[in-house]
Amino acid sequence: MNPQPGNPKSFKIIYSSCFMLLFLLLMLCGLSGCGTVQPWERGTLSDYTMRPDRDPGTESFREHVYFTREAAAGGRGVGGGGCGCN
Amino acid sequence: MTTSLKTELLAIVMILSVSCAHAGWKTGTTLPDLTKFKLEGTIPDLTGKVILVDFWASWCGPCKASFPSLEKLKKEYGERGLVVLAINQDKTDKAMRSFLNDHPATFSIVRDTQNQLIAAADVSSMPASFLVDRKGKIRHLHKGFHGEKTLAEYQQEIGALLQEKSGDKQ
User: Fold this and answer.
1) Which one of A7, A83, B47, B51 is CB 3.0 to 4.6 Å from B132, fit for a cystine?
2) Quick check: is B17 in a domain?
3) In CATH, what number is assigned to the domain containing residue B63?
4) What is the crossing angle of helices B61-77 and B148-163, to 10°?
């Protein structure tokens, strides 16, 4: 049965369609923010300040919290898997 | 499948293929005229030379590691017709100068101020280098720098390219 104009049901369908369309458009707008960082644009990313382990004190604190919470250590680099066998 | 659905699918495939296409430098393509790009510094005479075009930046660790090898190649093959042309990608001249003060180089270095040349080359990693023969054709590509292994590859390829005459057929 086709919804008739003036019918509250048809108004609801049109309203939800418009809402979906608007939602999709907003989603598409969000996609425009996605981009690839080119190899020659990685200067900022490779900066020392971007390293998570740049401060030995903070790193040791984090490691301690991690150990306390997980009862495991390591596994953040290539040296160990947290099994304590390396 | 309806015609409109087919058309929509075709449009999606076309859009995806265009976005995935790489128009960068490949083996067999001709090295573009470097003077058309906004390069800061003096481009040496490249006519009839074997050229090693190397894209580098001061923040790139492997680029730093490759410098002694580039220097060695220049000393080893420079007189026979090799030109090492290092294209810097730093945002500022100061960053490049600071690096070069610590790592002096005698080969040619120019700065790609607006990253136009590297964008045209469409490299996928840093450093990236291209070996160009005497006729201006790109013959070999190198991604990254892997120490002695890469140096040995350079030596073999440069040696072979230097033996070719400008008029040799490929």
Assistant:
1) B51
2) no
3) 3.40.30.10
4) 40
Beta carbons of A47 and B59 less than 8 Å apart: yes
- What was the ipTM of the complex prediction? 0.72
What is each CA distance from B51 to A84, B78, B107, B154, B159, in whole angstroms? 51, 10, 11, 11, 12
Q: Within a domain: residue B3?
A: no
Following DSSP, what letter does each residue of B73-87 receive, concatenated? HHHHHGGGTEEEEEE
pTM of the entire predicted model: 0.71
Place of tokens 């660790």: B61
Number of structural domains, chain B?
A: 1
The parent domain of residue B30 ranges over 25-163
Phi, psi (5° rounding) for residue A65?
-60, -45
Interface residue ranges in chain A relative to chain B, Cβ cutoff 8 Å: 38-43, 46-47
